[in-house]
């Protein structure tokens, strides 16, 4: 289990606002890739693991969401913290 960090950078990020602070489960390690946040700002490639993280719809949007629905997001290591 991991939590998407609740960050608010002024520059580029691929961490959707709706997932920030939410808890999900890593379902796959997709490998190591260039971190787009630093690369887009010319601060270096900063290679790191990219994970497929599964969030329940209820975790993202509350109890009115379907308990059968899930959202999968590919998130870099810097976006995540262990729960």
Secondary structure elements and their pairing?
Elements: E1 2-4, E2 23-33, H1 36-40, E3 48-56, H2 57-61, E4 70-76, E5 80-82
Antiparallel strand pairs: 1-2, 1-5, 2-3, 3-4
Describe it for me?
The chain is mainly β and 83 residues long. Helices cover 12% and strands 40% of the residues. It has two helices and five strands; from the N terminus they run E-E-H-E-H-E-E. The chain has helices spanning 36-40, 57-61, and strands at 2-4, 23-33, 48-56, 70-76, 80-82. It has a five-stranded antiparallel sheet.
Keywords:
mainly beta, 12% helix, 40% strand, 5 strands, 2 helices, five-stranded antiparallel sheet, 83 residues
Taken as a percent bin, the fraction of beta residues is: 35-45%
Mean pLDDT across all residues, rounded?
96
Largest sheet entry: 5 strands, antiparallel
Number of H- or I-type helical stretches: 2
Taking all Cα atoms into account, the compactness measure Rg is 13 Å
- The largest beta-sheet arranges its strands as 4-3-2-1-5
Estimate the global geometry from the Cα principal axes: globular
Which residue ranges are poorly predicted, with pLDDT under 50 across at least 5 consecutive positions? none
| Helix content percent band | 10-25%
Q: Given the helix and strand composition, which structural class is it?
A: mainly beta
**SSE pattern:** EEHEHEE
- End-to-end Cα distance: 6 Å
Strand tally is 5
């Amino acid at each position: 289990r991991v939590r998407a960090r609740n960050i608010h950078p002024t520059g580029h990020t691929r961490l959707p606002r709706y997932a920030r602070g939410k808890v999900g489960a890593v379902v796959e390690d997709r490998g190591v890739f260039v971190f787009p946040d630093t690369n887009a700002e010319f601060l270096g490639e900063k290679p790191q693991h990219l994970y497929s993280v599964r969030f329940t719809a209820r975790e993202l949007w509350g109890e009115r969401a379907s308990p059968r629905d899930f959202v999968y997001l590919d998130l870099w290591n810097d976006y995540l913290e262990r729960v």
